[in-house]
TrEMBL record:
It catalyses: N(1)-(5-phospho-beta-D-ribosyl)glycinamide + (6R)-10-formyltetrahydrofolate = N(2)-formyl-N(1)-(5-phospho-beta-D-ribosyl)glycinamide + (6S)-5,6,7,8-tetrahydrofolate + H(+). The gene is purN. It is an enzyme of class 2 (transferase). (6R)-10-formyltetrahydrofolate binds at residues 69, 113. This is Phosphoribosylglycinamide formyltransferase. Transmembrane segments: none annotated. One of its GO terms (biological process) is 'de novo' IMP biosynthetic process.
């Protein structure tokens, strides 16, 4: 990462950019320790691109479809856009492409993802339906550094929600999404400020950890609008 005071972040999206909206809101705070410098999509019709433009954030499109199975070519084109924007960190926010080992390794410790489950439980797709089917009592979301294994990266932070009697997939998804919108800006702030970093395949947190049941491992107060209470509601 370059020695910038506010690391430059690229948010990669494929769709509506729900978590992008939460990151944009957090980054409006002058105290937020990262700058959203680029929103890049592999789909020209991604609704999140317009959200970024309305916020005054530069956008780029690298269509994945024309590359077919040439994943390396697609990622090379994407890498040119990232390099041109001077990007320090990448935040995946609904980016529906599996990245190659080469690309992931090049951004080791500098690329984050948010996943709608309490990893390592329920990696992959359809997490909410699978959680209900499994009968778990807690579900949630995870922010982790990206590694070549899908949804296997070292965990930075998690937020838990109860699975309530009568929940269907939509109800549980909405409850988890509300926590995603709180957790991702906080975790990105920690990574940008160096308080969460990858060391020896694990995440080192450079601050006292919160304690107690259902505690978010990112204790408040956190920088600017990314502050989170230590106990989840």
């Amino acid at each position: 990462m370059r020695g910038a005071v506010r690391p430059r972040v690229a948010v990669l999206i494929s769709g509506r950019g729900s978590n992008l909206g939460a990151l944009i809101a957090a980054a409006r705070d002058p105290a937020y320790p990262a700058e959203l410098a680029l929103v890049l999509s592999n789909r020209a019709d991604a609704a999140g691109l317009e959200r970024a433009r309305e916020a005054g954030i530069p956008t780029a499109v690298v269509e994945s479809r024309p590359f077919g199975r040439d994943r390396a070519g697609f990622e090379a084109a994407m890498g040119e856009r990232l390099a041109g924007a001077g990007i320090d960190l990448i935040a995946l926010a609904g980016f529906l492409r599996v990245l190659t080992e080469g690309f992931v390794t090049a951004w080791s410790g500098q690329m984050l993802n948010i996943h709608p489950s309490l990893l390592p439980a329920f990696p992959g797709l359809d997490t909410h339906a699978r959680a209900i089917a499994a009968g778990v009592r807690l579900h949630g979301c995870t922010v982790h550094f990206v590694t070549p294994g899908v949804d296997e990266g070292p965990i930075i932070a998690q937020a838990a929600v109860p699975v309530l009697p009568g929940d269907d997939e939509d109800a549980l998804a909405a409850r988890v999404l509300a926590q995603e919108h709180r957790l991702y800006p906080a975790a990105l702030a920690w990574a940008a400020s160096g308080l969460a970093r990858l060391e020896g395949g694990r995440v080192a947190i450079g601050a006292p950890m919160a304690a107690g049941a259902l505690a978010n491992p990112l204790p408040g107060p956190l920088l600017g609008s990314a502050a989170l209470p230590t106990e989840m509601p």
